[in-house]
Amino acid sequence: MAQTADPFSSITVTPMAVHIGAEIGGVDLTRPLPSEQVADIRAALLRWKVIFFRDQMLDHDQHVAFARQFGDPTPAHVVYGGQNQQPEIYSIAKFRKANSNRGQGAMRPWSGWHTDITAAINPPAASILRGVTVPPYGGDTQFTNLAVAYNTLSPTLRGLLDHLRAVHRFAVSQGATAVNDHDKAVQQHTLVSEHPMVTVHPETGERVLYANPAFVEGICGMEADEGRWLMELLWEHIIRPDFTVRFRWQPGSIAFWDNRATAHLAPRDIFDTDFERQFYRVTLNGEVPVGIDGRPSTAIEGRPIEPVARP
Ligand code: SIN
After folding, report:
1. 108 catalytic, yes or no?
2. pLDDT digit string (tens) for 165-196?
3. Is 195 a catalytic residue?
4. Nearest CA to 290 among 165, 119, 117?
């Protein structure tokens, strides 16, 4: 059932699953939003971790303008680059497009469950993904709530994780030579950071299991095998179906997720069809994560992500 968040705002918030995901109605994202709506959308994002909008036919400028009401957009992608005309817009296409400023082949591979760019010292705070060309079926995106994942672990395991840190790496495999444009882009923009495995969300104060299988390469202070066993347990736990929501896209759909409290999975089923899929993403600049002991993350390689200057 739809719930109205604030009588002056007129947005509706319709939860989609018990722990994550709500659809927002009563807004027109093509125009600047009243401050009450911005506040209510932000509150819904913090509560539901990922929020969805339907029938919002935004162009690139409107997409960036919507994002700017919630933070400072980053460059399209710190590793893969973007389109020179639209520095904030990252194209996510099934088929490789020749519009990247880091070379024709500089598309990212379709990774598994991940949180955006956690190998950076200050990973994006949020991401806003817009569906333009959408397959008639298939191509759904799944999201999971990493705060509920933390809360549902035993006190014993939480007590261990509370004090652990992990290395997140975005690099070509160690010892490998970069031969294609994709690997060259990654090699030239290697990012490695050490983050707490449990972070304190800077806005809600919630504890978050801050780990994802795409970027975590090892756990500090553990033997490689021990780290692998612990990670396997965590990777199975964080994607428990009851922590997740699955979003069926339509042209004009938008997903806006809190990258500090979620992981997501891009679809692979589209590669078994001839359907096109063309999406665009804007990410909002984030802070350096902090653990429950107040210790921030540390950079091992690479520079902090800087927001795109306002026009
Ligand atoms: C992403 O991983 O940011 C994109 C997700 C998607 O294409 O569904």
Report:
1. no
2. 999 999 766 666 656 666 667 777 789 999 99
3. no
4. 165
Task: Name the E strands within 197-289.
Answer: 198-200, 207-209, 216-219, 244-247, 254-258, 262-265, 278-284
Residue whose CA is at the smallest distance from ligand 1 atom 8: 266
Catalytic residue, from 19, 63, 264, 277: name it: 264
Residue for token pair 């880091």? 102
Distance between CA 119 and CA 19 in Å, rounded?
Answer: 26
pTM passes above 0.90: yes
176-185 LR contacts (CB < 8 Å, sep 24+):
180/105, 181/102, 181/103, 181/104, 181/105, 181/106, 182/80, 182/105, 182/106, 182/107, 182/108, 182/109, 184/103, 184/106, 185/79, 185/80, 185/81, 185/102, 185/103, 185/106
Ligand 1 pocket at CB < 6 A: 92, 127, 129, 141, 264, 266-267, 279, 281
Cα torsion 204, 206, 163, 287: sign: negative
* Catalytic pick among 63, 116, 165, 260: 116
pLDDT digits (tens, 9 = 90+) for 139-160: 999 999 999 999 999 999 999 9
- Domains parsed from the chain with CATH numbers: 4-301 (3.60.130.10)
**Distance between CA 21 and CA 191 in Å, rounded?**
30
CA of 310 to the centre of ligand 1 (A): 25
